[in-house]
Input
Amino acid sequence: MPGPEFELLSKHILKRVQLADEELNFMLSQFKLTRIKKRQFIVQPGFTAKHRNFVYSGAFRAYVVIDNGEDHTIQFAIEDWWITDYNSYYNSEPATLFVMALEDSVILQLSRENEDMLKQANHKYETFFRISAERAQAFHFRQLITNLTQPAEYRYENFLEKYPLIANRVPQYALASYLGMTTEYLSKLRNKRTAK
Amino acid sequence: MPGPEFELLSKHILKRVQLADEELNFMLSQFKLTRIKKRQFIVQPGFTAKHRNFVYSGAFRAYVVIDNGEDHTIQFAIEDWWITDYNSYYNSEPATLFVMALEDSVILQLSRENEDMLKQANHKYETFFRISAERAQAFHFRQLITNLTQPAEYRYENFLEKYPLIANRVPQYALASYLGMTTEYLSKLRNKRTAK
DNA sequence: TAAAAAAGTTGAACCAGTTTAACTTTTTTG
DNA sequence: CAAAAAAGTTAAACTGGTTCAACTTTTTTA
Output
């Protein structure tokens, strides 16, 4: 009945918290399956991000556009990852990020209201979101360290090693801005590598 | 009875979650007051960070030392802030950061075991830690965006505006590495500003 | 409180990464 | 599937920020 989309999400949840069947099913029932076309936006500046999005299939990119028109990738998400503008989602304020589909995708969306309801309904649901936030916090913390301490070339090597699946799937300009360098420079780094 | 240290922490907690008197007191009773001398470490690489630390007074600096001996500030904490190596604390693995007192300080320490116990004991405690993690997540996310999108000079101006209390209280070399630049360059930026 | 250590300053030489621009390859779309 | 648009490549000129080195000021400690 639930379909493979909900099975992936179930696994994801049960890896983090133990739930009885009914508890799990109730939680799942709060998610809405949505199909997103390539290039479609699920978050846009000026509008409040109403959902937390679990990627079942496809890929997304979160980015900021600054005054001069440059865009900077802040996050990627592929299968089994979450994505949204968390500042907007948590604080119910207008987003500053774009979140765009890089491929045709299928996501499971949880609204802020449903999330709040779940958190209040059952201690275990709250635990799940607490663990998610802690992991995200630790993730961003490590990312900050890498950005601050490592030169461009190492950041690229490091990304290749940690996320080979993402590295070869997203457009190069998007990856370059994620790593804090220009497309041209990343192009050179890639060439240098394959030349070796 | 509790003293001003615990009053600051009480306010901090009650701002995030509603607790009855006994609930609050039980939570507070899990914290241990510790006095830390300037230059003393509360977290060191190789040792697991056993506590989450709430700063009542004083100031701390978290930093990484990389191969060539350079150090990079990752976080500051003054009154009413938390500090630890979260990767180490959450995952019970050896720390990679140093956390050092920049001044004689007073902190309230909560151990991982006591935190886990609190989270299990009462839904509201869990809510408190969930909110803390969400806020920290959003904070690091914004920081990542600033680092990625703004040039050195703006990052300094921005920091001055947002954290004037910290900017003039921590050593310049520590601030420079936090902002991702050398001491020498920050010195020049500061001079340029006062010259205006 | 003197002397040693740590922090901050200044300027010149340098370089990792950017910019600009012209070109090639890949992807999208009518 | 042809033409247009988007993405990626290459090379030369350039620059924001670093490095190095010598010096001054502030802080620490015996």
